[in-house]
Amino acid sequence: GENVEQHPSTLSVQEGDSAVIKCTYSDSASNYFPWYKQELGKGPQLIIDIRSNVGEKKDQRIAVTLNKTAKHFSLHITETQPEDSAVYFCAASIGSGAGSYQLTFGKGTKLSVIP
Amino acid sequence: DTGVSQDPRHKITKRGQNVTFRCDPISEHNRLYWYRQTLGQGPEFLTYFQNEAQLEKSRLLSDRFSAERPKGSFSTLEIQRTEQGDSAMYLCASGPDTSTDTQYFGPGTRLTVL
Question: Is B40 in Cβ contact with A107 (below 8 Å)?
């Protein structure tokens, strides 16, 4: 099955700096890559996603890039703010036909933004 | 609030007891998923419903676990004869048919088995 590796496990940045989180996946059939933000005691919140027919997607301060050849994708957060502090998860799924599109998650990155 | 809701938010039980959790998906979302998340890990897939049909189950879903979605709306997850290893956050997610891979998660049910 699919395996998703995520790095780093923890990341501390100064407020206003950029943060980058990287993930690799094993199954070349994966074609959907969402990123979730999870705050303490809450469920994961979808913040951005990308599909395999797109190389980059941006939404305000958040961007995601995908390299299908290398099988890796990254989350970029610019101008970080204290409220960006949370655990971020990458995930991958293989979508086809009537499949479930179940997500395989990385182990998460705890981002701390220091004021 | 039109998001995914789960009830209860927290459950403490003794080993050997049965527990049941409920998930109400976003209105008109036909796809519903259950995941389990242990401390320091990402969510792991348990099972998937398309309307009322349970179409996929993970090997993580032992015989003690059963899930239903009788009318294609809310879903229940029951764990029989709970064990300490069942302690985890149980997350429900739903998604629309119009975007077959997008999933929106609920707040989860935190289970503690003593």
Answer: yes
A50-94: pLDDT as tens digits? 988 889 999 999 999 999 999 999 999 999 999 999 999 999 998
Q: Determine contact: B1 vs chain A, CB below 8 A.
A: no
Q: pLDDT (tens digit, 9 = 90+) per residue, B26-66?
A: 998 999 999 999 999 999 999 999 999 998 899 888 999 99
In Å, how far are A10, A18, A46 from A80, measured between CA atoms? 15, 6, 18
Contact status, residue B112 vs residue B13, Cβ threshold 8 Å: yes
Q: Which of A32, A102, A107 sits opposite B45 (nearest CB)?
A: A102
Q: How far is A77 from chain B (nearest CA, A)?
A: 20
Phi/psi at B85 (nearest 5 deg)?
-70, -10
Q: CA–CA separation, B4 vs B108, rounded Å?
A: 9
- Residue ranges of alpha helices (H) inside B1-114 are none
Say if residues A55 and B108 touch (Cβ distance below 8 Å): no
What are the tokens at A19? 């943060």
Residue B4 CB contacts under 8 Å (≥ 6 apart), including other chains: A43, B23, B24, B25, B26, B92, B93, B94, B104, B105, B106, B107
Pairing of strands A10-14, A19-25: unpaired
A102 closest CB neighbour out of B33, B91, B106? B33
